[in-house]
Amino acid sequence: MAASLFVVGEIGANDYLIGVTGNRTLSELETFLPQILSAINSAVTDVIVAGARTVLVPGMIPMGCEPQLLAQYNGSIDASGYDPETGCITWLNDFAVLHNRELRRMLRDLRRAHPGASIVYDLYRAITDLIVSPGRYGERAPPVACCGDGMAASCVAAGTTVCADPSEYVSWDGVHFTEAANRRIACAVLERFRLMTEAGRHVT
């Protein structure tokens, strides 16, 4: 236990995604935040009490870049609602930033409560880097799904089309990342984790 890296999360992504696909407002999504943070706190505490000494807690993904949500809101948001650099939905990414800010505050409290454990945070930055500069990694822009029409449910429908080379895409089905994207995200997170822990600092 003490020699292993535990990844706790990402908790809350499905709650928010279901809320957004159910047309919940931003203020309604914000009411989810305290319960989700409490669940993360409980999960991290449980693994530390069980003997874990290094715990990685992923931040919330940039939801405004999810092809499923881009497809859902297509045509209903004016140009000012999109990030001109990434093509992602601004208010959804702003909400993910809010979640991550509150998560990092909670993790600081957990570190004080468990000084013998290393509790590290990362993920949002690695995914954002991949989305902002997909060409650098061989992926296509803007965010589109390899499978179906950007909606996860359509991937299993009869006659669904699939891209020729999934390694060129960040998203597999509009919600889940492709294997190639997951590999790049994992490598980026682990490399940053290695550099920060070697320097004796928390990944914040």
Automatic annotation (TrEMBL):
Annotated family: Belongs to the 'GDSL' lipolytic enzyme family.
Keywords: Glycoprotein
Protein name as it appears in the record: Uncharacterized protein
One Pfam family of this chain: Lipase_GDSL
Keyword Glycoprotein included in the entry's annotation: yes
Presence of keyword Glycoprotein: yes
SUPFAM superfamilies: SGNH hydrolase
Lineage: Eukaryota, Viridiplantae, Streptophyta, Embryophyta, Tracheophyta
One annotated GO molecular function: hydrolase activity, acting on ester bonds
UniProt organism field: Digitaria exilis
